[in-house]
Design brief:
Length: 128
């Protein structure tokens, strides 16, 4: 699913800017970090790569939260881009009784069930 196919470029830029102002991230202009075999969630915006803080064990480190590793891998295996993952994490989820997945990051199994439910029953919706 390509977010740019569903939104105008101005709307998408506005959504990206809002996301990055709501969820703190640090920016890099190079290729970025590697945490063993799983690349952190990386959001490219206005020529920079942003790494949202919520995914890391400690601020300033590139060690992914252990509970987030499988969630990130599952969403990528479901065919989502990193921006689609970011929007999925910050959109109310029916399986989670209307909660935002980002607020349930320590509930790994519950998030994996929400992902599987969407893949099996509804198709992973991403941002659409």
């Amino acid at each position: 699913m390509n977010p740019s196919s569903q939104f105008s470029s101005a709307t998408l830029r506005q959504a990206m800017g809002l996301f990055l102002s709501t969820y703190p991230a640090f920016a890099q202009t190079d290729a970025g970090p590697v945490d063993s075999d799983l690349r952190p969630l990386a959001l490219t915006y206005q020529g920079k790569v942003f790494y949202p803080h919520f995914q890391f064990a400690t601020q300033g480190s590139f060690t992914l939260l252990s509970a987030f590793r499988d969630v990130l891998a599952s969403l990528r295996e479901g065919g989502m881009s990193d921006w689609e993952i970011a929007f999925w994490l910050t959109t109310r989820n029916t399986y989670l009784q209307g909660k935002l997945p980002i607020l349930c990051l320590q509930q790994r199994d519950r998030l994996l069930m929400a992902i599987q439910w969407e893949l099996d029953d509804n198709g992973l919706q991403g941002i659409g």
